[in-house]
Amino acid sequence: MRPSIQLLGPDLIGRILSEAFELLMNPGVRVGSATVELLRSAGVDVTVAEKVADHLADHDGVAHIPEPLVRRCLASVPRDFHLYNRKGEKTVHYGGDDVHFDPGSCCVQMLDPDTMEARLSETRDLVRIVQVTEMLPQFAAQSTAVVCNDAGNDLPSAIGDLYRLFIVLQHSDKPVVTGSFSASGLEGMIDLLAADSGGLDKLRRQPRAVFDVCPSPPLNWSEFGSHNLLDLARAGVPAEIVSMPLAGGTAPVTLAGSVTQHAAEALAGITLHQLAGPGSPIVWGGAPAIFDMRTGGAPMGAVETAMLNLACAEVGKHLGLPTHAYLVATDSKFVDAQAGAESARSAMLGALAGINMISGAGMLESLACHSVEKLVMDAEWIASAQRLARGIEVHGGELPGHTLATAMFAQTGLSGEFLQLKETRALFRQEQYLPSSLIDRSARGSEPPSDVFTRARARVDQLVGKYRKPSLPEDVLQKFQAILNREAGKARAAAAASEKLSISSS
Amino acid sequence: MSDELFGAMLQSIVDGAPDKASDLARQALATGVDPLEAVNRGFAVGIKFAGDQFGCGEMFLPDLLASAEAMKAAIKILEPEMLKRGSQRATLGKIVLGTARGDIHDIGKNLVATILSASGFQIFDLGTSVTPEQFVAKAKEVDADIVGISALLTTTMAGQKAVIEALDRNALRPRLKAIIGGAAVTSKWAAEIGADGFSRNAIDALELAKNLMRNITNQGTAPA
What we know:
The complex is a heterodimer of chains A (506) and B (224). Chain A is built from 16 helices and 20 strands. Chain A is an alpha/beta fold and 506 residues long. Chain B is 58% helix and 10% strand. Chain A binds chain B through residues 53, 55-56, 106-109, 118-120, 147, 157, 160, 181, 216, 220, 222, 246, 248-250, 291, 293-298, 366, 368, 502, 505-506, and chain B through 54, 57, 60-62, 101, 104-105, 107-108, 111, 127, 129-134, 154-155, 157-158, 183-184, 186, 188-189, 192, 200-202.
């Protein structure tokens, strides 16, 4: 049997969904102007608010979405899909109980291992994270992990999202979990992926990336989020809903109440998405957390945060949808005991819950800071979690007579010489996860023992030393550069136009 | 009698009981207690106590918000009488608040507004996704002492810089102070964009604002 964990059960999931459907009608969901016509043409009652301030869009409205429409949209969501690596191999399966991990996304800071201080992240940090992730089998996918603050010297900051993907694609063959920073940023990113895949059709058939799209709690698919959802649905590129209620802050304080809000936000997102592109792949995902009553922050390492993530995914699995969660992160500022305990614990829970994509590894300080040293440490917890999720296996053909122990005892008698058995050699790699040098199991010797951070640094250097950059065809690289230049030009023109506007209005 | 009353006022704030606080405020007016004294020796002591308890981890954000609500309720009763007597409670300072352009997350900003307002600052809350021009216009209009710009998202933090640049373009600083806050905001970011201070939570924001006001008031006599 595959060990698993459930926190809700069918009865409670039924209540959660029933209240989530109620919320979709009353109070309803805030939606961006881009969705109003689409929703109305599907018969949804959308009340458009009066323009309350100059800087708000004209037609933001509140949609009251009826359950039958949501059910119809749920029915057209693909139950599973794959992400492909550059070679065209299916390496991520979104569906069923398959579990994959990727590094956390969109950090602005990096822990400097020399000074132990957090500093603004740069291109070299993203490259190092990508290199390490590429080398570690624990990570099925890359992420656009950090914002490259140095890119702003040459490029408009508005295309920071595109630039991250530009860097990741050049340094990795693995699938990518990414996301856009704005409503307009998506187009260039999809073009970049299409250039890499050999056209938009190919990208659709063999998607290399999934795009995180976030509603704003509570119950708000803002202009930016809803725009992205519609564009992804129409392009047929996979979307991943990352709804993030903060229990007690931007969502009900009870875990059950926050899971209900998450369900309503995800159901609304799926409805928008499937109305725009029926049959387009979308993931029931999230980064829910409790609201810390001392700091007002979102403690990603809290056990209740892990519980929320598991429970939200459980609702998605109940609906038969691909799932995602945010785990393996910590609130600690260092790669220390707190970081280890919080990250290892949630990696185990996520694997047992059978969540398809688990983001968050490498992240410190409640997602404010990335650390490549933590990433290699987390890879060990992930491997352990993956081992746990495989459970206790009964081997068939490898063992004589299909016995558990007696056939091996028939060979050793009472001598205890199991190490010499061919079964031992044949099976120990399956039975045991063999940790890297990061995990210390050695006996105390003449050398002074090292701590985990020292070993993590050595492990990073070792992996980066072995990494080889993929060689992309020259014409693909040229296309990448042309797309980057084109989008940079557009962003500069938009910035100039808005500056002109603000000068003339002031 | 008054000491007892002041003690009960303090307690009503600590308990976060707006009805009780209003009752005590009415009682003070009915028995001729100076409303300003009711604030300074009663209710405000309660807010200070709640802040301290929060600081040492004995009270939590929901408690603190309830205390601020109770404070608001008491002030609402006392204010007309204070106005009548010309003994308006001295404002600690005028603060313009808002979230950076593109950022609609306002829970942190709202906490700061509540705590600062309960503690005696006059708050002008511009809401969410506020442009640099709107910050500048409001700061000029009310002759603000402090402008506070909140940003939750790493992607909207650049908006904080834009506001500070706009304040400088309009020569509002150094008299006016610009402070920033938000989950991802750091001292380094604050220094980089030339902010006059930053805080990660509402209680720190209160301390920060009080310290800055001390500098502002001292500016005339001694170099800050």
